[in-house]
């Protein structure tokens, strides 16, 4: 599917653009709103249903197709659907979007994401982000993808500068500050990361994942009790257990740390295998860390794209075994 789609892009097939049906557009807006504001299972299902109803009326509306693709990707990221199903579904909707409107920048930004997470192809992701930005120079999604590519290539300052540009374009979008905070976190600039994540949460206190990132930022500043207070607000239990296991470890409460980690393993093994590996990395249990990294690779955990920069693994980067594992991921630069 990916190879076929790449050929279509290179062939420069440009179909006729058409306006969406009014009823289809209304359903699209409702589904997109739910998706952008809720990430629980029932909300994702409701958003998916609305997008499918919209596309049943007008199957060629590219924004609806790409929103549906992002829903499939999110469901994969949270372990609701598996990697193979998500890869198939996301590339299918991307191919339909290309046929419907090859000038829609969001499609190429979406393909950039798929290239990163389903192909480990950083070079291709960068080229697709560039194509999106040629079509729409200030497209925020494409700018985020360009920043991710820059970070993975070791261009930290460039990645941060891109996120700051996005914030100037949309200064009241909580997700933009989250992305900046995450980039600062990956760059191990925890003071600036804290400033950005606080701004993100101030703009939208009901986010998923934001409290997890905030708590990890605090842990890296040895503020463990504060981290526990923050993580209690995280809606996603998998991330909550991951952070609790780490924070209680540093506070010397082995029992609570083990309870959180065991529950994470027993209930979220496939969806959070990368976080389990990260937990063991922090706990300095090297053998279990590598065991769970291999599990994450087996499960095609999308979190592995963050491995080159994730601070939890910093102590192991120069080890031969770690370098050998990185080679298995076959990142293409």
Tell me about this structure.
With 333 residues, this protein is mainly alpha-helical. The protein has a domain of 103 residues: Serine Threonine Protein Phosphatase 5, Tetratricopeptide repeat (Alpha Horseshoe), CATH 1.25.40. 72% of the residues lie in helices and 0% in strands. It contains 18 helices and no strands. The longest helix is centred in the N-terminal third of the chain and has 18 residues. It is globular and about 60 Å long. The relative contact order is 0.07. The N terminus is likely disordered.
Descriptive terms for the model:
single chain, 333 residues, mainly alpha, disordered N terminus
Shape: globular
The CATH topology assignment of the domain at 1-103 is Serine Threonine Protein Phosphatase 5, Tetratricopeptide repeat
Low-confidence stretches: 1-17
User: Helicity range of the residues?
Assistant: over 70%
The multimeric state of the shown protein is single chain
- CATH class placement of the domain at 1-103: Mainly Alpha
Helix-and-strand structural type: mainly alpha
